[in-house]
Write a structure and sequence with these properties.
The chain is mainly beta. The chain has helices at residues 11-23, 184-187, 406-410, 436-439, and strands spanning 36-40, 45-54, 60-66, 76-81, 85-90, 102-104, 113-122, 136-144, 147-150, 160-165, 171-180, 193-200, 206-209, 217-223, 229-234, 252-256, 262-264, 275-280, 286-291, 297-303, 307-310, 319-321, 334-339, 347-352, 355-358, 369-377, 383-389, 392-400, 423-425, 428-429. A hairpin with a 7-residue loop joins strand 23 and strand 24.
Amino acid sequence: MKSRLLLTTSWLGLLTLVAIWLALPARAQVPNPPHYTITDLGTLGGTYSYAYGINDAGVVSGGAATATQTGGVYQTAFLWDKNLHMVDLGTLGGADCPDCNSEAGGPNDNGESPILSETAESDPNGEDFCAFGTHRQCLAAIWKNGAMTGLPTLKGGNNGQAYWTNNQGQTVGVAENGIEDSTCSTATPFQVLRFESVLWQANGEIRRLRPLKGDTVAFAFGINDRGQTIGSSGLCSNTALPPFVNGPQGAHAVLWEKDGSPRDLGSLVSGGTINIAASINDRGVVVGGSQSSDGAPHAFLWTKDKGMQDLGTLEGDFLSVAPCCHTINNRGQIVGLSIPGPLGSGRAFLWQNGVMTDLNTLIPKGSPWYLLQALSINDAGQIVGYGTINGDVHAFIATPCDRDHQDRECGENVEGDSMEMHKINEGASVLLPANAGGLLQHPLRFGSQAVRPQ
């Protein structure tokens, strides 16, 4: 749900990687990616919104500002479709907490959506589990049959977060247990208790997903319809609790099989401090982010046969990631974001058939949009995320055009050349927020938390 990496990089290593990437002969043989129309999902009365998930029916989940929520951080969970438009799902705090925050993930094909939501209670340990800066209790919940219901925590813990729900109604996320660990605050400010990956069954029953042997904490980001779950595990000192306020940290990328047994997915470089599995499709293919040989995290693709493969970055960039929690579909298309520098604005990408393409080059020429992060893709190829339009950050849905009617549905043509950072094409300047660099500070979870003040 939120994507709330800044590492030094070897520019020589970057140039080598780009040169290898550009030299691959398959690039010239791959079919062109589709073009897209962009729809603004609006807000809940405020000035910003973020789309985190989409199902195969085109229903979108996310978080948006109400008229009283400001700062780019505070938000309320929503669901959107082309008929209902944006629906406010509220919070677990209800009327007792008018300034509580919530975010929605999923939804599955039944319209059930995982939620993380603050309650009106202050955290008894002073933790800031969902990192809204309020130090309120934060709970996992599920939106089902028109109502939000809180999900149980582990014994001794006070907080939880839910990220994704599959079509069997199983929801995954993270919950803290009752084990105090003084090292937790090293990676996660204010954190007192350890946390574990959890799976909530359709009836709400909670089940632990144990970390790898030798690890003490874990979190789960995604689950497919086969019951396979992915995430990360490590020690509380080197594995940060999402949304990664001090930057993503995860010692080991993990796949939990249906029976709960964990598998270490490896890494792009030995000794890397970032190895996070963020999404899995129904074929068991995993994507995420891992520290690369040049020091910066890169998006990766993992398969049982080939292991972890580096997807590189967009040309000229140094960092990329396929974020939580459904950034690969069953057709093998991958979405995410690529970043050109430590403080530079990022750009959404689409990866397919071995080629990573800037999504901004696939939208109508002259569009006022600049697409910053792509955070979910369904099997129809629809992509959601957030970008800037007229200086505001809004959630979007990108819908593939009918190639037989491209002139009518996509405009006369689509810009196909590489773009300058602040221009989509000649004569179409894009207004970026003043804190555009900060938007991409921590790009692994649901996109909104990247806008937190640094």
